């Protein structure tokens, strides 16, 4: 289960980038103003563009629309050339800007983009440094710059890995390895918004193991846990990677089916019911499940959607268990689904 797909998808990283951009943009602004008014016009314009670009990145992060490619395509080549211009103009003091620039690269972009940006920075700026400075000073700069690059990469790699591990622990059920309830509200809310924006279909499947308490009472909690673990592994393989599978209670599971209309999801749920019924989770004992299915339809929020699906699950249990219950779907051929009951319960 992939928790973080990109270095810059972590909340802490975006927050760090936001405040670094605000701080750097604010500090560069008076430097730019001073050069615009009293010193070199080119340095002043370059500083002003850098400051405004940093504020723009902070604004995009605040609006939750920032993409690292923006920085990679625009800010990387511009700052690389600007620092080379600074060094050429004012000598060794221009190299001081190299260190803050490399740190910003690591925070504002993915690790791969940061390495590529630093490689470009080295190819452009090192020849300038070695041409302008004495050999001893150039060596010192080269060593310290490379150390800052390596330290930054190591630091962010370790922090990101730890963040990923903590996030995984926070959102994952320890017993089954499925998602727990932590991500449930955000996942359902995102699905509702995506449906309104792009007309993508989402359907909920809520599944409950029949007579699970009896298993624990007669065979012990260890056997009950074993059933949950095996069933969790089965659900991971049964559903697609684009679907989200949650364990939301003791023996209750929820699946958020992506880009699947309710009609198709009912077919899938019935196949799931039959498959679990045929599994040998406990020797000489059949395990069955009751399943409720609800499409998004007119639900306005995640609670309403969950309630609609829970009502279908309740109908499945009330109707004798080991069956699938869906909201009104008259077009389904009930003869094809011996375990299926079509409910008239409104969503």
Topology diagram in text:
Blueprint: H1 11-37, H2 41-62, H3 68-90, H4 96-108, H5 111-132, H6 135-171, H7 184-198, E1 202-209, H8 212-219, H9 221-238, E2 244-247, E3 252-258, H10 262-278, E4 289-295, H11 302-318, E5 324-326, E6 340-342
Parallel strand pairs: 4-5, 5-6
Antiparallel strand pairs: 1-3, 1-4, 2-3
Helix pairs in contact: 1-2, 2-3, 3-4, 3-5, 4-5, 4-6, 5-6, 8-9
Written overview of the protein:
Helices cover 63% and strands 9% of the residues. It is of the alpha/beta class. It folds into two domains: 7-171, no CATH class; 181-342, Reverse transcriptase/Diguanylate cyclase domain (Alpha-Beta Plaits, 2-Layer Sandwich). It has a six-stranded mixed β-sheet, sandwiched between helices. A hairpin with a 4-residue loop joins strand 2 and strand 3 (252-258). This is diguanylate cyclase. Its cofactor is Mg(2+). Residues 200-329 form the GGDEF domain. Pfam families: GGDEF.
